[in-house]
Design goal:
This is SigmaK-factor processing regulatory BofA. By secondary structure, this protein is mainly α. The chain is built from three helices and no strands.
Length: about 90
C-alpha cells in the first residue's frame, strides 16, 4: 500500500524538477540568442564608430560572453572594448 504512493510522489517530484530545469534552460537559450544578435547588430550598424572605435571582433570569446550573459554580456563586452581591453 505504501509502495505505490511513494512511487507516485517520486514520479511527481521528478516531473516537477524536469519542468523547472527545462523552463530555465529555454530562458537561457533565448537570452543567449538575444545577446549574440545584439552583438551582431552593434557591428552591423557601426555603433562603435560613434565612439571612435573599430567594430568589436566577433570571435569565440566575445560570443561566449554574450551567449552566457545575454544583454549584460554585450554591455560588458562593449565596455571592455571601449576601455581597450583585448578579448
Amino acid at each position: 500500500m505504501l509502495g505505490p504512493i511513494i512511487g507516485i510522489l517520486l514520479a511527481l517530484l521528478i516531473a516537477l524538477l524536469l519542468f523547472y530545469f527545462v523552463r530555465k534552460g529555454i530562458a537561457l537559450v533565448i537570452n543567449a540568442i538575444i545577446g549574440v544578435v545584439v552583438l551582431y547588430l552593434i557591428n552591423l550598424f557601426n555603433v562603435m564608430s560613434l565612439f571612435g572605435q573599430p567594430d568589436i571582433p566577433i570571435d569565440i570569446i566575445t560570443v561566449l560572453i554574450c551567449a552566457l550573459g545575454g544583454i549584460v554580456g554585450v554591455v560588458i563586452v562593449v565596455i571592455l572594448h571601449l576601455m581597450g581591453v583585448p578579448l
